[in-house]
Amino acid sequence: MPVLVMKFGGTSVANLDRIKRAAKRVGVEVAKGYDVIVIVSAMSGKTNEMVGWVEETSPLFDAREYDAVVSSGEAVTAGLMALTLQEMDVPARSWQGWQVPLQTTSAHSQARIEEIGTDNINQKFGEGMKVAVVAGFQGVSPEGRITTLGRGGSDTTAVAFAAAFDAERCDIYTDVDGIYTTDPRICEKARKLDKISFEEMLELASLGAKVLQTRSVELAMRYKVKLRVLSSFEEQSDEAGTLVCAEEEIMESNAVAGVAYSRDEAKLTLLSVADRPGIAAIIFNSLSEGGVNVDMIVQNISEDGRTDMTFSCPTDQVARAEQALLATKGAGELNYAELVADKDVAKVSVVGIGMRSQSGVAAKMFKVLSDEGINIKVITTSEIKISVLVDRKYMELAVQALHDAFDLDKVA
Amino acid sequence: MPVLVMKFGGTSVANLDRIKRAAKRVGVEVAKGYDVIVIVSAMSGKTNEMVGWVEETSPLFDAREYDAVVSSGEAVTAGLMALTLQEMDVPARSWQGWQVPLQTTSAHSQARIEEIGTDNINQKFGEGMKVAVVAGFQGVSPEGRITTLGRGGSDTTAVAFAAAFDAERCDIYTDVDGIYTTDPRICEKARKLDKISFEEMLELASLGAKVLQTRSVELAMRYKVKLRVLSSFEEQSDEAGTLVCAEEEIMESNAVAGVAYSRDEAKLTLLSVADRPGIAAIIFNSLSEGGVNVDMIVQNISEDGRTDMTFSCPTDQVARAEQALLATKGAGELNYAELVADKDVAKVSVVGIGMRSQSGVAAKMFKVLSDEGINIKVITTSEIKISVLVDRKYMELAVQALHDAFDLDKVA
């Protein structure tokens, strides 16, 4: 029998009615002849509640105990989902991570999947079970302790099962109906994509992170697992949602697939840094050790042996960056005149695999922004993405103008 | 190191503050030099909530899935308790049933303990761990699925661990401060017992059931595990609470240790039943198959080849009893003139191992009730218990009069 993996997030199993609705979707796929592996999250809110208890009990908690506590929510929904399917006369049973077994590293609270044993579940499929309901987000360490995979880990669980069982597809049921060309909340012309490539999905993380965990997309790309994102709150056809798939499966595409943004960026500039070999290494090593996630980096041309160094990071890490650099300066390893922080910037990016073959995307992007009177503060590019830092007040305008200019509201 | 088992029920771990209070008690015992095994229940209310979800989802639920769901509450408190102890610098870790392993039968939702593996926990004690926090109520079946032990199963878990680890004592922390001579709510002279024998504790089930699960007392008796019942809401000395122990350890005792009662009893009489061999078997087989828990049985003297048969059962089973007997009558296997049900009766019992050596307890009991004008409807006796059925309106009076007459407010 072909295998289908279906994953239901927290809002899709938030209560017994929603679990029933999800179970009906599963029943539809079983009726089509699939053996189905269902991956469930905890009821929405449950994991947060337990994380709160752990943090209140022990601010610097033992991650092994954290995992033992917070993994319990998925066990509850897995059992309830199996019972709901049984009530619909669909042969089903629940599996916890250690029962599968889903073996992980010992990196508690952010473990990585090492191997999924397929024998137990395949044996049950052979005996007539139609649905294996698996508690997402959790596994078991080599020491036999429960591990969790980090936030959004149920997506990763789902993709890993799809890879291990050579599933035809991995359907991610969530509270949105697919991946959009940009955020519909700030651009009313945003259009749902029927297909998007893994590479684009990864670059659109700032849109996709709310829908798909980045790690799950990486894993899907590596194992060529077709991922479909769709809503559990609507009746669904086989073509619903957005298919995240290999580039080859997308016939024709716009140069640009989507416009992403990140609101909470800050731009920091170190004025008058000595321009000598190794200075960048000192600066960014200091920031890395200080726990600052540096994104974009620009170095000005040098003048009189000194230069300015600009970088961006999340707004809430500015204080940490200032502290780290001041400490390095204090230790005599680094000299600079001043650190200037601009917390009122945002990042806007255009993403598309079509950029590889179609030139002029960057030029067009800069012209569009210029025509709107939006000043570009920093630019970075990758093979399939161009990102710019702009004043935050222009963020929505930039997204809308770029969405229009690249005709994202129209199918390619 | 000597091992101590400490069990905390749902109200004793109802929130983070109470878990902290319980952990402090554990710390006191660790400081005395014990290796401690802590058995925890789910936070009060959590198990009921999950049972409700299961029953709403699937009225005739698959007990294997029921177990997978309802066992999750204990995992949460075990992890939180371990974290709380770690915060107090007490080396601790949590264990779920399958990790210990605590092996049970496959009788899901009412499994029996088969074996407790001691190697894993003993190894950790050897490595310096001072407290093993074990999720109560749960185990693992030979098929590798999670089982639960039935309501109050955490008491049984605690006693089983005390037996397996040859613990010096098993302390059951609960919301009452011990076992009383009778229910303090209906007899203000009720006195807390310092010691009570296993046998008496079992007979006092109607008092003890609220405090100790009957199975845990049976198990403690078989393996000679000293059980102590005490409150988690008070500062406790080594002599606090009530010790449930072997008869030999109780030096001197009253003939009567306590007065128990059961409010919701009903008395049913089958009038004019043919008095022939096998008729009792037919009647009680019919009731048993109808799911009626018959308690006391009395047969009148025969007259003209016919007799009356009286028995008692819980009030809420009267309809079931009537139905079962009517069906048997309808099938021609039984004949009787009438079935008379009296739902306004209660059972009052005096219990004490001293009865074995001291005569006259029954006579005294009947005289006390007679002096109060209380009519006895049915009598049954065992080696250490005498029970009578009386009109429910006299129940409190009967308990108080017997408590006085047998001097239960005074230490023997």
| Structure summary, number of beta strands of chain A | 18
CATH superfamily of the largest domain in chain A: Acetylglutamate kinase-like
Shape, principal axes of CA atoms of chain A: globular
Could you please say which CATH topology of the largest domain in chain A applies here? Carbamate kinase
Given as residue ranges, the uncertain stretches of chain A (5+ residues, pLDDT < 50) are none
Report the CATH C-level class of the largest domain in chain A.
Alpha Beta
User: How many domains would you count in the coordinates of chain A?
Assistant: 2
Q: Termini distance of chain A?
A: 36 Å
Helix content of chain A: 25-40%
Which radius of gyration of chain A do the C-alpha atoms yield? 24 Å
Chain pair sharing the greatest interface: A-B, 36 and 36 residues
Major β-sheet annotation of chain A: 8 strands, mixed
Oligomer: homodimer
Sheet/helix structural class of chain A: alpha/beta
Strand order of the largest sheet of chain A: 3-6-2-1-9-11-12-10
**What count of helical segments of chain A does DSSP give?**
13
Write the layout of secondary structure elements.
The structure is a homodimer of 412-residue chains.
Chain A (H helix, E strand, L loop, with lengths): L2 E6 L7 H16 L3 E6 L5 H12 L5 H8 L1 H16 L4 E4 L6 E3 L8 E4 L2 H8 L4 E5 L2 E3 L5 E3 L4 H12 L4 E6 L20 E3 H6 L1 H4 L5 H10 L3 E5 L10 E4 L12 E17 L4 H11 L7 E3 L6 E9 L3 H13 L7 E14 L9 H11 L6 E5 L2 E7 L3 H11 L7
Parallel strand pairs in A: 1-2, 1-9, 2-6, 3-6, 9-11, 10-12
Antiparallel strand pairs in A: 4-5, 7-8, 11-12, 13-15, 13-16, 14-15, 16-18, 17-18
Helix pairs in contact in A: 1-4, 6-9, 10-11, 12-13
